[in-house]
């Protein structure tokens, strides 16, 4: 519709809505990474991965607020994690990795001497040393 002065303009300027959901905590503008839901019947607060859709009775939280979450007295907090999130390695994982690196760095003659007596090298490939579930392969040009 046009007026005598030209096309009509909107009285309220249009703000572009960000596709990133923000933390629900007051004065926090960080991106949300988790969704908090209260189950009042069970006195439980459930914190899980960010929900696909924003629900009216759920709260989206940033990483900092989701880590610091506490529930009211007498309530339980259930933290759900999805399999896609990277997990922190445990001490056992780091120790196994360090042992595998040390073993791979050994000279070939020491690696063969350290093989367990009841377990011969896998005859499948020439130049291969096998220890449990780990396998050290030598390059063909060495």
Give the SSE map.
Blueprint: E1 2-3, E2 6-7, E3 34-39, E4 44-49, E5 58-61, H1 63-67, E6 76-79, H2 91-105, H3 108-113, E7 128-131, E8 134-137
Parallel strand pairs: 4-6
Antiparallel strand pairs: 1-2, 3-4, 3-5, 7-8
The share of residues in helices is 10-25%
Distance between the termini: 81 Å
Summing up helix and strand content along with how strands pair, one would put the structural category as alpha+beta
Q: Treating each run of at least 4 consecutive H or I residues as one helix, how many helices?
A: 3
Strand content: 15-25%
Task: Tell me the radius of gyration.
Answer: 29 Å
DSSP E strands, number: 8
Poorly predicted regions? none
Tally of structural domains: 2
Order of the strands making up the biggest sheet: 5-3-4-6
Protein described:
The chain has about 140 residues and is of the alpha+beta class. The protein is about 20% helix and about 25% strand. It is built from three helices and eight strands; from the N terminus they run E-E-E-E-E-H-E-H-H-E-E. It has a four-stranded mixed sheet with strand order 5-3-4-6. A two-stranded antiparallel sheet has the order 1-2. The longest helix has 15 residues.
